[in-house]
Amino acid sequence: MAIYDTMKHVLPDVRTLVMGLAASAASLILVGGEITKRVAFRHARVMIHQPSTAHFFGTARTIALEGEEMFELRNEIADIYAQHTGKPVNEIQKDLERDTYMSATQAVDYGIIDRVLQFKEKE
Description:
The mean pLDDT is 93. It contains 5 helices and 6 strands. 46% of the residues lie in helices and 17% in strands. Helix 3 packs across helix 4 (89-96). The protein has a 3-stranded parallel beta sheet with strand order 1-3-6. A 3-stranded mixed beta sheet has the order 2-4-5. It is an alpha/beta fold. It comes from Rhynchospora tenuis.
């Protein structure tokens, strides 16, 4: 979240590029790039999901507080994806329930990236 916040507060437009796999927090950083400047290589993959943590330990109150914090973080993440993709928050939250993998083309359709880079033709 610190990287995302920094991207939103620097003056220059932030370009994001995915090669290989942008999963979890990396996909959040990817979607946070300047709209029209979020790209992926053709064979890149993107995966979104809700935040996870190790098992909770401690008193019942401590476990409840940890759960509340995770729920709040999940809602913040869903809001960020919704803001940058144009999708409704409830659709994003449904997709965050499980690991949702996308090809580069599917990530364009979802709104996480703006375009897929094409191979250069060799002469």
